[in-house]
Amino acid sequence: MTSSDENMVLTHIEAGVLTITLNRPDRLNSFNDEMHRQLSEALKIAERDEAVRCILFTGAGRGFCAGQDLNDRNVSVEQAAPDLGLSVERFYNPLIRRMTALPKPIVCAVNGVAAGAGAAIALACDIVIASANASFIQSFCRLGLVPDSGGSWFLPRLAGHARAMGMALLGDKISAQQALEWGMIWQVVEPEMLAARTQELAQHLATQPTYGLGLIKKAMYSAATNTLDQQLDLERDLQRLGGRSEDYREGVSAFFQKRQPEFKGK
């Protein structure tokens, strides 16, 4: 690894929150292969460290993530066409699968532009808060490509078919406020409030019944493909698991004792 390859992804753990910061601000935090590898290592911390009970995802500088760094995909007429599907299969698909399967809440602080795969990565987080000057762009159509990283799955479900088609086919910039009104994100705050608001939210989630929050994520994502009968059965099964958790016992005890619960995330 050369010195320029170091610290493309920063991690910091405090009060149960693992903050993951994409750190290529000079390239609007766009991805190359090394940055993917470093992000994969950061997610291992989220998956394996029991002290981590919430993840906060953000970007350094003036952008959240501009998607793929096209400097790594630049081709001339003389060169053979790259296999972009290989990049999707090797990096982006595993990333989205890990984020959505992670049994811990992920908060996303969108501090600037989220374009291409960067927009999909933001939407794959569980609660998205954007700066008022942030924006979302489905830029694939400008290159003759298809929304990937789950973009074609998240957008119709969050914004609706008509809006998703417009975003994908036209590549227009969608403001944070518009994304909020369309149901794509949870909240918009002033730029100077973004870091404090998202840290506050992440630290709150880190004190909550983490195991149960993971079950909620599983239920919500399963609902997209389940029938009503299948989802009712799943809710039954997940509720059974939740009812056996230490946090459920603590929550009920705290309720009857009229005190604040002290959840351990188990």
Taken from the alpha-carbon principal axes, the silhouette is globular
Considering DSSP H and I runs of 4 or more, what fraction of the residues is helical? Answer: 40-55%
> How many discrete structural domains?
2
Mean pLDDT: 94
CATH class descriptor name of the largest domain: Alpha Beta
Oligomer: single chain
Main sheet makeup: 6 strands, mixed
Are there runs of 5+ residues with pLDDT below 50, and where?
A: none
Order of helices and strands: EEHEEHEEHEEHHEHEHHHH
End-to-end separation: 38 Å
Q: Which percent range describes the beta-strand content?
A: 15-25%
Radius of gyration, rounded?
A: 19 Å
Say how many strands there are.
10
CATH architecture of the largest domain: Alpha-Beta Complex
Order of strands across the main sheet: 1-2-3-5-7-10
InterPro entries: ClpP/crotonase-like_dom_sf (IPR029045), Enoyl-CoA_hydra/iso (IPR001753), Enoyl-CoA_hydra_C (IPR014748), PaaB1 (IPR011968)
Family: Belongs to the enoyl-CoA hydratase/isomerase family.
GO molecular function: enoyl-CoA hydratase activity; isomerase activity
EC number: 4.2.1.17
